[in-house]
Amino acid sequence: MIEWISAQPALFWLCLGGLLLITEMLGTAGYLLWSGMAALCVSLITWILPISWPIQGILFAILTVISAVLWHLWLKRRKLSKEAENLNQKTHQLIGIHAVLLSDTENGFSRVKLADGSWRVYSNTPLLAGDKVTVTAIDGITLQVTALKQTISGDDNTLTNDR
């Protein structure tokens, strides 16, 4: 067996790369992917160029480190989309949504209709039914809202919400 491996280094590296990639598919979270790819590259290089075993081992180690570092740099630069950040937090996707109050606020609480559901909302300022609000935060199942746009009326200096 050792003689066969010594005579066919390209097949050895091909088998090792395949085993590492198969093991990676069992769930090692990327740890063996780059070693498997490096082994496949060494297999290709040893098939084209006859190089000694120590050089093959050094080449395998260098390619593994280079590919892992490049992968790490690529992941670091990659920006996650806002949808991906909130993938498992569906309620956080409501932040920034505009809605209309269904009733006047009582002690800061009211309700809005979003999609096919009614949501409890809280506002620090008193608001009237029909006021347009924007969702600014989520607290459990309560949406924190603020008035969408407020202007000061010229005659009596009262705040009115644009509808």
UniProtKB/TrEMBL annotation:
Annotated Gene Ontology cellular component terms: plasma membrane
Species of provenance: Proteus penneri
InterPro entries in the cross-refs: Membrane_assoc_protease, NA-bd_OB-fold, NfeD-like_C
Signal sequence, renumbered to the chain: none
Keyword entries, A-Z: Membrane, Transmembrane, Transmembrane helix
Transmembrane parts of this sequence: 6-22, 29-49, 55-75
Compartments where located: Membrane
UniProt topology in membrane: Multi-pass membrane protein
Domain spans labelled NfeD-like C-terminal: 92-145
The gene coding this protein: ybbJ
Protein name: Inner membrane protein YbbJ
